[in-house]
Structures are given as C-alpha cells and as structure tokens.
Design a protein that fits this description.
The complex is a heterodimer of chains A (about 110) and B (about 120). Chain A has about 110 residues and is an all-beta fold. Chain A contains no helices and 11 strands. In chain A, strands 2, 4, 5, 9, 10 and 11 form a 6-stranded mixed β-sheet that branches. A 5-stranded antiparallel β-sheet of chain A has the order 1-3-8-7-6, with no helix packed on it.
C-alpha cells in the first residue's frame, strides 16, 4: 500500500530552527510537496522536490532523498505565525497526491 | 496562481437534509477540480475528481449517490451532501491544479467549507 509518515506534533521556540521529517512508500514517484495549513483553513503550497537535494526558499528549505524515501522541511528563524500544520504529499505514478496526516507545529515564545 | 473560492464557508444543518457546496475557480478555467474531505487531526482524503461536462470519478469507498458532484461549467463545481448525517460532519475542500513554470502541477485550494450535521 501507499503510506506517508510524519510526526503528529512538534514544539519549538520562537527564533529557533525546526526540522519536520517525512518518509514515504508509494507506487511511483513524481515529486514531493510540502503544504502549510493553519487551523480551519485550506492548505497553501510551500515547496516541491523531485530531484535529490535541498531546495531553499527564504526561511524554509526542503530536502529530498529518493533512494531513502525521505524528505524534511526545515524552518529557520521561527515566528509565532509559523504555528500551523505542515503536510507532506507525494505525487504517485498516476500523478495523484498521497497526503500525510500532517505535523502540528507549536511555537512557544 | 489560481484563485479558488468556496461557498458557504461554514454550514450547520439537521440530520437528513441535503447541503450544497460550491467551488469556483475565479481566474482560471478548470476542466478538472478535486474534492477533499478532512476530519480533525487527519489527512486530506480525496473524495472525487470533478470533470467538466462529464461524470465525476469517485475514490473507492465514497458513495456517489450520497455525494453528488456537478461540474457544469469551467469555473464551477458543486458538491451536494444528500441526507446528511452527523458522521458527514467534516471540512470539505476543493482544489484545482495548474501547471507551473517549474514543470509540476501545483494544487490551489479553496478556503474550505466546515459542515456540521446535528
């Protein structure tokens, strides 16, 4: 079957760095997405990785290792507004998105 | 990107009634729209793919007679939850995909509709 695993909840301090991991097992791979979802709102796009390596976009970076079925989202200089759920999603061989359950990130002052 | 709206943003209804949720693509003609459902603390679950001018494609386990989808135009898809029951209470989200300059299809989501069935 297809499976996306990510931690349920993480806590970090304002100004610090946090890494959210995602491992996946899917039938085929056409890229991995990270989305941010604030409570009660729809997800918004953060990043896309299809090749191995690190993609940096401001305070957020995303890493992919296809051989390990592994990705992480790195958030630097954490701000209170970063408190949200972070969803990992993989595009499978049919280009259908398989979603993880999301990681709730709690930022403390 | 694409701007997607949903209406209503929240609805409370009595058990046994039907509820219609609208999804509009405001600046993009979408031949395909997606309907998701999300229960608290759970993942997004794809319910169906809505195709303009043809029948929707439902995911396994989703009752097509209960969740009626109509994609009558390139900018509007509707999801009707018929004979709603408390277990249908959930967050319903629609999305469209847009091919980007980065050679991938990005999903743009509507703001979601919170359905509560009493």
């Amino acid at each position: 079957g297809q499976n996306i695993d990510q931690p349920t909840e993480m806590t970090a301090t304002e100004g610090a760095i946090v890494q959210i991991n995602c491992t996946y097992q899917t039938s085929g791979f056409n890229g991995l997405f990270w989305y941010q979802q604030h409570a009660g709102e729809a997800p918004t796009f953060l990043s896309y990785n299809v090749l191995d390596g690190l993609e940096e976009k401001g305070r957020f970076s995303s890493f992919l290792s296809r051989s390990k079925g592994y990705s992480y989202l790195l958030l630097k200089e954490l701000q209170m507004k970063d408190s949200a759920s972070y969803l990992c999603a993989v595009s499978d061989s049919n280009y259908q998105l398989i979603w993880g359950a999301g990681t709730k990130l709690i930022i403390k002052p | 990107g694409a701007v997607v709206s949903q209406h209503p943003s929240w609805v409370i209804c009595k058990s046994g009634t039907s509820v219609k949720i609208e999804c509009r693509s405001l600046d993009f003609q979408a031949t395909t729209m997606f309907w998701y459902r999300q229960f608290p603390k759970q993942s997004l679950m794809l319910m169906a793919t809505s195709n303009e001018g043809s029948k929707a494609t439902y995911e396994q386990g989703v009752e097509k007679d209960k969740f009626l989808i109509n994609h009558a135009s390139l900018t509007l898809s509707t999801l009707t939850v018929t004979s709603a029951h408390p277990e249908d209470s959930s967050f319903y989200i629609c999305s469209v995909t847009l091919e980007t300059s980065g050679d991938y299809n990005e999903q743009f989501f509507g703001p979601g509709t919170r359905l509560t069935v009493l």
